[in-house]
Amino acid sequence: MSYWLIKTEPNSWSWEDQVAKGVEHWDGVRNYQASNNMKAMKQGDRIFFYHSVKEKKIVGIVEVSTEYYPDHTDAKDRFGMVDVKALYPMEKAVSLEDIKKNDALKDIALLKQSRLSVMPIRDEEWKIICEMGDTKPI
User: Fold this and answer.
1) What domain range includes position 128?
2) CATH code, domain carrying 92
3) Residue 138 within any structural domain of the chain
4) Residue ranges of the EVE domain (predicted)?
5) 137 pLDDT higher than 90
6) Are the beta carbons of 13 and 31 closer than 8 angstroms?
7) For the segment 62-104, what is each residue's pLDDT rounded down to a tens digit?
């Protein structure tokens, strides 16, 4: 199993929206590196659900339910999407500020590639962030 982080603007698509829908496609990604990360996702991979913009915190965990396929919102057929399924909220949201304060997370993609919307998370980073959020890692 691999781990990932996806960013969303909560005023466009929030954790509450994801939970209400259950399974939803993750479309609209128009960055090649982010798209390549989605291509690497496999069914069952776990993903941190991150509220960007003003909140800047990890609020929940979703999993890949359908692997990469063409994005119906891309008129030029260059990009794809995955479907994600809401699993559970973080017991305690983990803020970007708290991540920055943790020396063990100094190399996390969230800090190194802050504008990327879909990024890999290393196993150890996953465990640390779950611990910070009082949430079981799997």
Assistant:
1) 3-132
2) 3.10.590.10
3) no
4) 2-132
5) no
6) no
7) 999 999 999 999 989 899 999 999 999 999 999 999 999 999 9
